[in-house]
Amino acid sequence: MRMKPPVTVDEAFDWLHEQAARTWPDEVGPRMSSEVQRLAVAMAAISAADIPAEIEPLPLSLSYRAWPERT
Amino acid sequence: MTATVAPSQLGASGIARAVAEGAVAPSEVLDWVLGQIAAVDGAIHAWSVLDTDSARAHAETLSAEARAGKLRGPLHGVPVGVKDEFDIAGLPTAMRGPDAAPASEDAACVSRLRAAGAIVVGKTTMPIAGQPPPTRNPWNLEHTPGGTSSGSGAAVAARMVPLAIAEQTAGSTLRPAAFCGVAGLKPTYGRISRFGCYPFTWSRDHVGLIARNVEDLALGLSVLAGPDPRDPTALLDEPPAADLNLDTMPPPRIGLVRNLLPDRVEPEMVEALEISAQRLQDAGAAVEDVALPSELALAWPAADLLDAERAALHAAAGASRRITRDQIAGLVPAMYYVQAQRVRTWLVTVMQAAFAGFDALLMPAALGAAPQGLGSTGDSAPLVPWSLLGFPALTINGGSTPAQLPLGLQFVAGPRADYRLLRVGAWCEAVLGCLPAPRLPGQTEQPGQSPVSARLGR
């Protein structure tokens, strides 16, 4: 699944639902769609995020180093 | 000493002081606690396991030590509850599954509680396999106590124990504390070792505390925090002091947040926030408006995508073939999982501007009061960003609805500023006050009429 240009919720939903239906064919239904929708919305939002290129996926303890206070 | 002790109004710090002063024995405290549990837990259902025999034996030992003038630590004789997500040696951990063998050793937080002299009474309830527990809110039995630390919140509110271990991945410590009208702390990520805690996720789980008041939270954190080589994410910082030194504290600088989920926060919660902020300002706090940056809107989707950790956990544990919410999160593409982690790192930096010049930010701990029914433990939305970023967050009472259901305020500080946050919380709690004990079914004695309280003049 691409990230740029940003995916729409519908694109992400279709892609995720296809994977879900293939993995759990007996459980296709409203509950599956509801959970897939939640993830599709999240994927669309994250793919549209414009974050600086130098940002790395750091553990939290390392990302806190930018903060001055420790009290 | 007396056998008619009812230390209901003392909290953890008060009990510890009473034991240290010889006013009460740990075994007397435990007797009262077990009596209270027997009286009210039939209606509340806060406990999944009571380890009564072990607790009694331990209390006898602690009593003998106290008589000899030996105190193990700052919680000597204080009864505690532990969420059934943490290992207690000799007991199964419900979160590990129905066939889990008894744990071979204590979780780090449990062993630190014991080393400080606490009496582990048992395990408190939580949802298992997605099913909410039968636990009820002590303020209204028809309402949820919140979750997932359901039993910990209800047990403290119902005066069954003064202190309980909780855990928060999204909102599972502060929400039950807020719904039950008590105080709750989710420290900075890594402040308390997760060793022996069965994970929801690895990168967002925080060991938390629920207590009657902020003083007790500070006492608990001073015992539980600190490095632990068995948890690689544990911070190396030494534990903060238990003494909050409020006498030397200037009035806090508080940023009032009005733009956290403004379309979803219920009117009663908004009113409680506004009234509380005004009262704090009237008492001398510097309260100024602050807006959370628009970028924070990414916190919720990032948290959803990081749920892929749950899928990995379940897959590694050999989960059933039936799908669950956690398993569906395993469909998140790896690139999106990594991007969500990058968003988290970025937000930690972006948030500095919002916190600059403030000791803490003030906002709702929940969308409103505890919802009716036990089918859901409520919505964690106002708590999700701070669990994602690992910032310390605390809840204290912010009043009640006309139906007498508690409304919780949330204070948040920058990473590692746990001690500052606790001081702010204690200062504000002194202004706003704590809720009285809820009127409980089966309660024959009105909490507050304790002989120990009278003897100590509190």
Q: Could you characterize the architecture of this molecule?
A:
The complex is a heterodimer of chains A (71) and B (458). Chain A is mainly α and 71 residues long. Helix content of chain A is 54%, strand content 0%. In chain A, helix 1 crosses helix 2. Chain A is elongated, with a radius of gyration of 17 Å. Helices cover 36% and strands 13% of the residues of chain B. Chain B has helices spanning 11-20, 26-44, 52-67, 108-115, 150-157, 174-180, 214-224, 267-282, 299-306, 308-316, 325-328, 334-350, 352-355, 384-389, 418-432, 451-456; strands spanning 47-50, 79-83, 119-124, 163-168, 183-186, 206-211, 253-257, 286-290, 360-364, 393-400, 406-412. In chain B, strand 2 (79-83), helix 4 and strand 3 form a beta-alpha-beta unit. In chain B, helix 2 (26-44) runs antiparallel to helix 3 (52-67) and helix 7 packs antiparallel against helix 15 (418-432). The relative contact order of chain B is 0.15. The interface between A and B is large, with 36 and 45 residues.
Determine the strand fraction of chain A and express it as a percent band.
under 5%
Q: How is the main sheet of chain A built?
A: none
Query: Helix/strand-derived class of chain B?
Result: alpha/beta
Order of neighbouring strands in the sheet with most strands of chain B: 1-3-2-4-6-5-10-11-9-7-8
Extract low-pLDDT stretches of chain A: none
What spatial form of chain B do the alpha-carbon principal axes imply?
globular
Order of helices and strands of chain B: HHEHEHEHEHEEHEHEHHHHHEHEEHH
Layout of helices and strands:
The complex is a heterodimer of chains A (71) and B (458).
Chain A: H1 9-23, H2 30-48, H3 60-63
Helix pairs in contact in A: 1-2
Chain B: H1 11-20, H2 26-44, E1 47-50, H3 52-67, E2 79-83, H4 108-115, E3 119-124, H5 150-157, E4 163-168, H6 174-180, E5 183-186, E6 206-211, H7 214-224, E7 253-257, H8 267-282, E8 286-290, H9 299-306, H10 308-316, H11 325-328, H12 334-350, H13 352-355, E9 360-364, H14 384-389, E10 393-400, E11 406-412, H15 418-432, H16 451-456
Parallel strand pairs in B: 2-3, 2-4, 7-8, 7-9
Antiparallel strand pairs in B: 1-3, 4-6, 5-6, 5-10, 9-11, 10-11
Helix pairs in contact in B: 2-3, 5-6, 7-15, 9-12
